[in-house]
Design a protein that fits this description.
Length: 358
């Protein structure tokens, strides 16, 4: 598809990804990141019901993981109680792994997260993932309401190790034990959009997922840092070699023009983020060029930078561009998110991609 006017970069793929020199012999595993979007004229209850429906379809279509992300105080996002939603979705699905993409660990005591995810893993053995990040997932005022621990954010690696310890082998002599939790060895991923998370994941021998769907600037360098500094782990849940994932926005439709029209809802959402007007998901509006043409040059540039890892078009177009992206980055898995306004359009987008990817 065409790049946005004045954007300084195309939407079709992340041009900076080309040239890393890493290739994958087969298509990476395809996963879904669901932000549980609330429509501008909709409700949180409707958003949660839509998430369950998408997850059930994704389960049948062969997606590997279904992740939800912790956000707070956002009118357009209903995923604040992430662990509760994970349990709800896992109850309603059969095969697909369900997890967090992610839990913002400094917002919580590691012990509480261990109990929550240990309980989830006990109810749904072999199907729960725990992705961890250290960003607040909200604004400063709401961070204070969450009793966020800034010192914990500074000691993110130590907090992760403490959490993993609670999920490890049972220790009858331990004074504090996570029950349920101990012995579940819930798989832990480190999430990030900079070198910090990459360094933590590498030092602990854990898999690493990069948030390139909204912050792609450091994607390639963070992946390189992670791979260069990776220390194999012999601990349960650790890896003996790097394991990577990257996130991307997608919008797939039967025609490129229709996909671009639907993608205007995503562009409007990113525009709302940079202008401080965060509301619900808006209906698609016209076309990409006319929508972005109504913004200031600075706004166009900012949104264009955020959505560089976005793939919009027909099934074949999106499959091929997504394959180019995964070949260039060398990631083992890719997690895609679709911000279509209409539920049927979102379902159709995921279905068309699953068919094309397979």
């Amino acid at each position: 598809m065409r790049g946005p006017p004045g954007g300084g970069g195309g939407i079709a793929h992340d041009g900076d990804a080309v040239g890393l020199g890493v290739s994958t012999p087969t298509r990476p595993q395809l996963n879904i990141l669901d932000l549980v979007p609330v429509l501008e004229d909709g409700t949180a209850a409707e958003a949660i019901a839509a998430t369950v429906d998408v997850a059930q379809h994704a389960d049948r279509w062969g997606y590997g993981r279904y992740w939800m992300a912790e956000h707070h105080n956002m009118r357009g996002v209903a995923s604040s109680s992430t662990a509760v939603l994970i349990g709800h979705v896992a109850d309603k699905t059969e095969r697909i792994r369900v997890g967090s993409g992610g839990i913002m660990l400094p917002n919580h005591a590691p012990y509480v997260v261990a109990e929550q995810f240990g309980t989830l893993a006990t109810m749904h053995p072999g199907r729960i993932d725990l992705g961890l990040g250290r960003a607040p997932g909200t604004d400063p005022l709401t961070s204070r309401a969450l009793r966020r621990n800034d010192m914990a954010a500074m000691n993110f690696a130590g907090e992760v190790e403490e959490l993993i310890g609670y999920l490890g082998e049972p220790d009858p002599d331990a004074r504090v034990r996570a029950i349920p939790g101990e012995g579940t060895h819930v798989p832990v991923w480190i999430l990030g959009s900079s070198h910090g998370g990459a360094q933590v994941a590498a030092s602990l021998g854990l898999p690493y997922s990069f948030a390139s769907h909204f912050a792609p600037a450091m994607l390639m360098s963070a992946l390189q840092v992670y791979r260069d500094r990776f220390v194999p782990s012999t601990e349960p849940g650790g890896f003996d070699a790097p394991r990577t994932m990257a996130a991307a926005n997608i919008m797939v439709a039967d025609s490129e023009k229709e996909a671009e029209r639907l993608f205007t809802s995503v562009l409007s959402r990113f525009h709302g983020i940079i202008t401080g007007r965060r509301g619900g998901v808006l209906k698609p509006e016209g076309d990409i060029e006319s929508l972005m043409g109504s913004w200031s040059p600075a706004e166009r540039q900012a949104v264009s930078e955020m959505i560089r890892v976005s793939f919009v078009g027909t099934p074949d177009q999106v499959r091929d561009r997504l394959q180019e992206f995964t070949d260039a980055t060398g990631v083992d898995e890719v997690v895609v998110t679709c911000g279509a306004y209409d539920h049927d359009d979102r379902l159709r987008s995921f279905e068309l991609l699953a068919d094309a990817w397979s």
